[in-house]
Amino acid sequence: MPIKSLLILLTLLLFTQNITAKEYKWSNKLTFLGFLKKHGIPQKVYYNMHKEDKELIQEIRAGQSYSINRKKGKIDTINIPVSDELMLQLKNSKKGYGYKYVEIPYQLIERTISIKMKHGFKKDLYKATKTWYYGKELEEVYSKSIPFHKMRKGDRIILFYTQRYRNNKPYTSPQIDACLIEIKGKPFYGFLMDNEKYYDSLGTQYKRTYTTRFIRPVPNMKRISSRFTHRRYHPIHKRYRPHLGIDYAARSGSRIVASSKGRVVYKGWKGGYGRTIEIQHANGLKTLYAHMRGYAKGVNRGTYVGQGKTIGYVGTSGKSTGPHLHFGLYKKGRAVNPARYVKKQSAKVVKIKGKAYQRLRKLVRHYRPQFQETKARKSSIIKKESSKCLNCFKKLPPRK
């Protein structure tokens, strides 16, 4: 059934059940407890929440859209997005209000842009898309490792990207899934992998060959034991639990270093995080280092630390099952994926192997005919679009 027909059907169902839906904006100074009080919802709804569910509530930001469905004039359901993938759902029933986190229905728009350069790399992309976003993103994709300045008239740029929409409006930035830059006939392919980094068709990572803004905070790490996610479904507890950072497994006592230069704004015990240090950096960025065994001498609140400076040692303080560092990165108070910022300082070539390489080759096989088909077309600017509805009517496992 077409998406448009499904939406019409859902609207008719709401109408026949006397359910009205209205969208609102989260005001600047509104707290979640204030929101509950405003709508006559018992505050125990918040106080009875699991600690990590309360952490997700802190992701609600001013200006965020949310909806309230009313049945016969009374509140039936409230849906409040807390991330790009999850929303908090408050449901009114005979037993009172309950809550759960559910996946956000969205429409995924897939687009192709192909440009034969006429004037300049960024200028032509802007002319085709009316935004400077793609030029800046491509520079990030290739990490300034290819000579964009050598591009000339007739060189090719091809992008395959996706963007999520809700209610016919984009609610995420476009994500470049695969791309091709041709310079004097030489192709530079880029493919996005699960670790949010880009590789060429042979598995070599595009990366800078100089010191980066953020480095790994545990130089002698063994492995990454847990990655960043807003919606990790726990197989035992049958519930969504966020993990707003990266866990670096390492020997107890291993050095922890400042990922970037900045000023220590917090040092002390922080609930389940145990011994914690927070460092404020430029441009509204802040890093968090948790579960530490101890602090380095001379590191206190207000101390300025340089990149690579030892600030403490790996441990298992707080709620931790083994020695590791929980590393969080926040941009203007909101948790972001550290993997997009943290790079190795080494200039050596990085290649993926094993199962990751097999996944890359599968991507290459998927996009190869699409690149060939797009290149075969003669027009200088090609735009192609398709869409599909994901998670729209997917039933989630019951939450206990």
Structure keywords:
zinc, seven-stranded antiparallel sheet, metalloprotease, metal ion binding, ten-stranded antiparallel sheet, hydrolase, Nuclear Transport Factor 2, Chain: A, 26 strands, single chain, Glucose Permease (Domain IIA), 3 domains
Structure notes:
This is Membrane proteins related to metalloendopeptidases. GO terms for molecular function: metal ion binding; metalloendopeptidase activity. Residues 24-102 form the Csd3 N-terminal domain. By secondary structure, the protein is α+β, with helices and mostly antiparallel strands. The chain has 7 helices and 26 strands. It has helices spanning 3-16, 32-38, 44-47, 51-57, 121-129, 133-141, 354-376; strands spanning 19-25, 65-71, 74-81, 86-93, 96-103, 106-116, 156-166, 169-170, 175-183, 186-192, 198-199, 214-215, 223-226, 229-234, 239-243, 246-249, 255-257, 262-269, 275-280, 285-295, 304-305, 310-314, 324-331, 334-336, 342-343, 381-390. The chain is globular and about 65 Å long.
Topology:
Layout (H helix, E strand, L loop, with lengths): L2 H14 L2 E7 L6 H7 L5 H4 L3 H7 L7 E7 L2 E8 L4 E8 L2 E8 L2 E11 L4 H9 L3 H9 L14 E11 L2 E2 L4 E9 L2 E7 L5 E2 L14 E2 L7 E4 L2 E6 L4 E5 L2 E4 L5 E3 L4 E8 L5 E6 L4 E11 L8 E2 L4 E5 L9 E8 L2 E3 L5 E2 L10 H23 L4 E10 L10
Parallel strand pairs: 12-25
Antiparallel strand pairs: 1-2, 2-3, 3-4, 4-5, 6-7, 6-26, 7-8, 7-9, 9-10, 10-11, 13-16, 14-15, 16-23, 17-22, 18-19, 18-21, 19-20, 20-22, 20-23, 23-24
Helix pairs in contact: 5-6
Keywords: Hydrolase, Metal-binding, Metalloprotease, Protease, Zinc
GO biological process, one term: proteolysis
Cofactor: Zn(2+)
